[in-house]
Amino acid sequence: MSVIVSDMTVHREWAIYEKRSELVCAPLAVVTPRTVSLTSGDKIPRHRVWLIVQEESTPLVVEAKAYAASMDIDILWRAAAGRSLDAATLAACVNAEGNVGTLAVVQKIINNPAYFYRNSGVFQPAAAEVLEKAKAALCRRASDAKEEEQLLTELSAGRIPQEVAAAAVNLLMRKNKNTSIFKAVKKAAGGEQHIAEYLVKIGLFADARSCWEAMFIHNWPAPSTEDKVSLPALPFSSARAFSVDDAGTIEVDDAFSVQAEGSGWLIGLHIAVPAMAPLSVGDYETMRLTSVYFPDVKHPMLSSEQIEAYSLHAGCYCPTLSLYCHFNPTTGNIGAPQTRLEKVFISHNFALENFEQQVPAAVRTQYEVLCTFAAHLPSARREDGTRLNYRISTNPPGVIADVRSSVSVVVEKLMRYVNSVWAKQLYKKGGLFRANGVTITRPSSTKPYAWLSSPLRRYVDLANQRLLLFLLGQAPSPAVNWPKLAKMFNVQYVHARYYQDQMERHWVLRALADLPANTVLKAQLLPRNRIRLEGYPLCGTLNPPASGVLDETIEVRVRDLDFFAQRAYFAPV
Predict the structure, then answer these.
(1) What is the model's pLDDT at position 9?
(2) Where is the RNB domain (predicted)?
């Protein structure tokens, strides 16, 4: 249908045009070569305008829509016979006469966009094979819509469909958003942001914590089932070592010993050697490459058999890869380090939190030597004596904040020394190194740093230890795909740390929820109405805002806690 009007002329006619797959009419104002301007201010492309008449044309549009409802789109598509036709010609092919018939054809086509392509008012029938695929897609869409409606009806009636229960974790992680299951649950929950809360409400999860853990386990490889334990005959060391670790630790990776030697001391740093067992290689995507510790549960990297065999438990001789060096406390001189594969007797496993109260006099003397030794080691980072450590408990929920103990600082410096010394032996031989917070294969620095001190907890340490044993002539060359391992370890390590942070944040919120009503807390002001709580590893939002300068200490009360979005809101006192 062609519309002939002079350009740039003000009119008082009515335009029938296409809007959101419907024909509508409205008074027009100006017609230009490309657009039609309506009196409402809207501009419509010329190829979307189908008729301009002298008077209000709503009855014509209503009649055309009713006529279109009785048309068969398949007959209309066959009538075109592969030809590109305008609306009037196509209407004549199916004996639809006049403006009503022409507009009805237009309405039918815009309601069924799969049948025709449109180009500036001309309709081109879709190819037969393309149309069949489009019809199949429409059938699937109709079927999905029906299934979505049925699921929504079940959920509204308080029943949990089996399909919804089976897809619970995927719903939490917002996967497969185009499925009828996701769309039904999204509507029932009132939006994507409320899905987790809704799934807890209908009983598929116990609480927000179980939601976070379910998402973690869904993407976390299955636990190791390997029980390969190899404890070859090794020479016995004369050292008696002790370990210092967090309470409840099941993977004791390191221990320390001090023996009198000449004018000084022989310092021994002993690391567990699970690398004596055959090293798993290949499909790193299906392996746990690190242990993960939530406040209320542990997900170890190795199997329980391997942990039991290689962990440095007190009261027995344990295989260790030991680094020895002579230390003269008078001069501060540190001798050349030596590495030995041996069995060392572990006398004590001390808890870090109670070390000062537990340590006997003999071990305290050794610890004081270690403190002096650590003070002479080069420090790779500036020590902050005011930095707080947070210990999160779950029964009951609580947070214990204390200044970082001197014991933890000493242990960290000793482990960094072990890692630095052994990293130099791996340099240019292979292995994985640390740089800028990630694991890499080729360090650019002449002072490389590698993780080797926690082989029971990190696969990178285990692989590096296997290579070190090979360089010492104690094991065959490890068949490790170093670049692939580095990539997968970085991915899984970030993933594990993310969920560990989420679980810790959950228990911090639980601790705040258990405080007596109107408890006054202290916090520091941050930009954009944010605050950092004192005594809690948590930042929150202040509402209403408080006046003050940045980093100023103010008093606040808990206003609201969102366990699903993991947000905390506070009000100034």
Answers:
(1) 46
(2) 228-474
Find the mean pLDDT for residues 370-380.
89
pLDDT bin (cut points 50, 70, 90) of residue 228 is confident
| pLDDT tier for residue 8 given thresholds of 50, 70 and 90 | very low
- Tell me what pLDDT residue 389 has: 84
Verify that 165 and 303 share a domain, yes or no. no
Kindly report each contact of residues 87-90 with a partner whose C-beta sits within 8 Å and lies 24 or more positions away, as own/partner.
87/1, 87/50, 87/121, 87/123, 88/1, 90/123
Asked if residue 167 lies in contact with residue 535, where contact means CB atoms within 8 angstroms, the answer is no
Torsion angle (degrees, nearest 10) of CA 366, 369, 370, 373: -160
DSSP per position, 73-101: HHHHHHHHTT--EEHHHHHHHTT--HHHH
- H, E, C per residue of 193-239: HHHHHHHHHCCCCCCHHHHHHHHHHHHCCCCCCCCCCCCCCCCEEEE
- Write out the two tokens for 426: 């791996």
Residue 185 lies in a domain: yes
Instruction: Identify the residue whose tokens are 């690391």.
Output: 271
Give a yes or no: residue 134 inside a domain. Answer: no
- Whether the predicted pLDDT of 300 surpasses 90: yes
At residue 252, the 3 state secondary structure works out as coil
Q: Are residues 478 and 440 in the same domain?
A: yes
Burial of 489 (0-12, 13-18, 19+ CB in 10 A): buried
The secondary structure element, H or E, covering residue 145 is: helix 128-156
Q: Is the pLDDT at 199 greater than 80, yes or no? A: yes
Tokens standing for 329?
Answer: 């406390």
197 in a domain, yes or no? yes
pLDDT beyond 70 at 19: yes
Kind and range of the H or E run holding 16: strand 14-19
Gap between the Cα atoms of 181 and 204, Å rounded: 15
